[in-house]
Amino acid sequence: MNKNQLLREIPSVDRLLQKEETLIFIRKSSVELVTHLLRRIIEEYRKKVLADQKGQMHPLSEEQIITKLEKEMSQFIEMNLKQVINGTGTVLHTNLGRALFSEEMKEEVWKVLSNYSNLELDLSTGKRGSRYSHLVEKIKFITGAEDALVVNNNAAAVLLTLSSIAKGKEVIVSRGELVEIGGAFRIPDVMEQSGATLVDVGTTNKTHLRDYESNVTEETGALLKVHTSNYKIMGFTKEVPLKELVDFGKGKSLPVIEDLGSGVLIDLEKYGLAHEPTVQESVKAGADIITFSGDKLLGGPQAGIIIGKREWIDKMKKNPLTRAFRIDKMTVSSLEMILSYYLREETVVNKIPGLSMITMPYERLVEKAEKLKQIIGKKNEGLFTLSTREDYSQVGGGSLPLEQLKTEVVIIEFHKTPISSVEKALREASIPIIPRVSNDAMILDPRTINERDFDYIATTIQRIVKEKH
Ligand SMILES: *Cc1c(COP(=O)(O)O)cnc(C)c1O
């Protein structure tokens, strides 16, 4: 059939709307939505016909359209953003939403969201209050900083800082620290947007204090240090420690800004991890401004926390960008709760899901892996082979890039079914399951999987493999 014939034979939307099957969908939603979806299905087909080079297209029947309508209808109505099971073992997985809230947080946060709150009301005076007041005292106590401000994310925190402190001036950064985070955050671009001029000094692997020194001019407005959180330069390297940069800045009356990236508030070495510079260490070293994320190692909501000397924070509060980057009550509430966990360091890793996953003992992971293997194995009908072995998980979120967290994983090797098709079906399951795949085996890392999901995972894998068998 030629293209014109195919296009002429497309059933009309009006006719489709009269069909008994379509009426059922209309009753479930609205005539507008059904019309919208029908037009979309037809338009898609029309485009395919027009693009078809080989003349392989068949006429589009009413039945085919109704089948497609049913599928698109349920996809359109059901929530598109939904829970998934993270089998990758990467704890702060940016594509999977970074840090998780705990069950306990749910109640507190929900109370604030579903009721009126004193978000901007000072209960002692009855006057207008500040949404930041719920957070500032706790942040100051935990970090030791003079003052604090919170914006939507760390990218906004860096932009606000540079724009408030160094607009129209030069900012000196080491060439080894011109980081890119997740593609869209690049220090040179943020700098440009802020109205400050980037002066990169030193070389990729080595920057000395004299490199900063020889580039300070009348135009210099600040010195910036960026934590190279998602990579490490190794071998023949040299960077200027924060403390030295601060001393140098003091001598020149230049503020020192540090973008810490992840922002750890506890010493991870105590839990057998590599040393990650803590926020408190940066405050002690005397940085004027420090910025970090709320949803990386801190374990809270998406947010950018800015701490430092009062004079600079005051300047930022007057910047219109602060209003544009304002956090909402969900962030205030959940971040306050997270911060309150840090008031008791002994319990913090148990209370914050991200931290408890990162610090989960290897013996516990072996136990979880054995249990998961057993549950999946119970429903195995000889269609795949199961085993466990030692492996490594990642922290993720651009934090501790070299840290290999020892774990025990479950490995599934499918006998006949191609792994890519199982992977796709797992992604399309009612609660999608995201595994790791390596050497044609599927890997499930129990570090990031909740035990209450084990049964669901087993049933889903079994169903998929049988369907594809
Ligand atoms: C992650 C990161 C950012 C961006 O933080 P977001 O909270 O994702 O906006 C900026 N700088 C560094 C060094 C980072 O690691």
Automatic annotation (TrEMBL):
Family: Belongs to the SelA family.
Originating gene: selA
Native species: Isachenkonia alkalipeptolytica
Keyword Protein biosynthesis set for record: yes
Subcellular location: Cytoplasm
Catalysed reaction, written as an equation: L-seryl-tRNA(Sec) + selenophosphate + H(+) = L-selenocysteinyl-tRNA(Sec) + phosphate
Cofactor: pyridoxal 5'-phosphate
Highest taxon listed in the record's lineage: Bacteria
GO cellular component: cytoplasm
Name of the protein this chain belongs to: L-seryl-tRNA(Sec) selenium transferase
